[in-house]
Amino acid sequence: MSGWDVLAELAALREADLPTHGGRTLAYVYDSGIAGLGDLGARAHALASSANGLDPTAFPSLLRLENDLVAATARLLGGTADTVGSVTSGGTESCLLAVLAAREGRWDVAAPTMVLPTTAHAAFHKAAHLFGVRTVDVPVDPETFRADPAAMGAAIGDDTVLVVASAPSYAHGVVDPVAEIAAAASARGVRMHVDACIGGWVLPYLRRLGAEVPPFDFAVDGVTSISVDLHKYAYCPKGVSVLLHADASLRRGHYFASADWPGYTMLNTTLQSTRSGGPLAAAWAVLRHVGDEGYERLARDTLAAVAEIRAGVYEIEGLRVLGSPDSTLLALARDTGRAFDLFTVADEMTARGWYVQPQFAHGPSPVNLHLTITAANRGSEPEFLADLAASVAAAREAGPVVVGEDLERLIAELDPDQLTPEQFEGLLAGAGLTGGTGLPTRMAPINSLLAAAPAPLRERLLLEFLGLLYTPGR
């Protein structure tokens, strides 16, 4: 095929994807709305994509780019001359490395644990699974969804190697009381990590604009590491995240070296070995182009969009915002007793050209719709709110989505550890996912089915379905 034909085919495939620009996809992507910014990042990416971050002595340009990114992030988040960091592929890798460094830093603890609020990102449960660290999950306030400092402090034990708080939590957009939690961790000599993957690059600007942002960065005594994603509110191409440590001794645990083979001595600062220089260069170019004043303007636009959407939600009968969000994320739930299905609302919004992300019930948090609001949403708030009101009305008219008695009976009988192919096929058939290779246009019946399943079964079902999706030829 000619190069032009290949690109044309790729463009045709991309037409089925959610839009990544225009502010209509309120999860997964972050859009500044700045014309040409994506092209700048792509051109910078291309200039460095063939360089290999495995060896900084072979590609000193990448060393310079990484040090510049870490320094810029540290300046924004109250770092000192001792603050160091690493650039990773994304927030999950940054969180994994924070846990790994904490575990390796306490070689004297045979069975390490980490203390998490139940709203902490699932990346920490992944880290626990991979690195043999047991999680101690602490319930949050059922109304505000913020971590409980007293309960977090009480959960710290002699085997605790890390305490985690969010700034903000993904599910509800609230900043945990970092100062109080860090004080409790410091009193026990335990590391304190702040997951600011979403908020790290925008919360300082929101504070500068007058928003009440609780303290969360290195200005807080006891905070030892912070994760910040540049591909979120720094609006850089994916995937670039920064993991900051208060000093170099705290970072050493996630570095890796191996000379026990006949090749080169392998040295890794992150989980990866070979790393393309493309994401580094793209992020470096975007940060330099937007600049401090540019990010303040983007934060101002985002703050205005959040305020208008949040106020507008309360004008829609039956909807409310969960908790009291501190940042740029909103979780929309039904008022108690309102008879319409939120999964149907999500489908209706999709039909109107918007993507909002359904979130299942968990503890005191009911089923809700997640909104990640960016600068690109400024100016389209009236259209979004009008479509949201119409979607709620359509869901109310459609009535509840009911999982049939046969499916409910099958779900009750299933053991996630003993799930058979026949049982899985039966659930697929009941959910309307057989007889074709694509996903259905309406997801409410499937989400209702998954909501009826206990979390371990939901995990197993979705993993099996993921395996089906990633099957060549389907």
How would you describe what is shown here?
- The structure is a single chain.
- This protein is α/β, with parallel strands linked by helices and 474 residues long.
- It has 16 helices and 13 strands.
- The radius of gyration is 23 Å and the shape is globular.
- It folds into three domains: 41-286, 3-Layer(aba) Sandwich (Aspartate Aminotransferase, domain 2); 292-398, Aspartate Aminotransferase, domain 1 (Alpha-Beta Complex), CATH 3.90.1150.10; 405-469, no CATH class.
- The strands form three sheets. It has a seven-stranded mixed beta sheet, with helices on both faces.
- Helix 5 (123-131) links the parallel strand 2 (113-117) and strand 3 (134-138).
- It has helices at residues 3-14, 37-48, 60-76, 91-104, 123-131, 149-155, 178-187, 203-208, 248-251, 278-313, 342-351, 381-398, 405-413, 421-431, 444-452, 455-469, and strands at residues 84-88, 113-117, 134-138, 160-166, 191-195, 225-229, 241-245, 256-258, 266-268, 319-321, 329-334, 357-359, 368-372.
- It starts with a helix and ends in a 5-residue tail after the last helix.
- The relative contact order is 0.12.
- The mean pLDDT is 93.
- The longest helix has 36 residues, at 278-313.
- Helix content is 42%, strand content 13%.
- Strand % is 5-15%
Mean pLDDT: 93
By helix and strand content, what is the structural category?
alpha/beta
Q: What's the CATH class label of the largest domain? A: Alpha Beta
Distance between the termini: 23 Å
The amount of helix comes to: 40-55%
CATH superfamily of the largest domain: Type I PLP-dependent aspartate aminotransferase-like (Major domain)
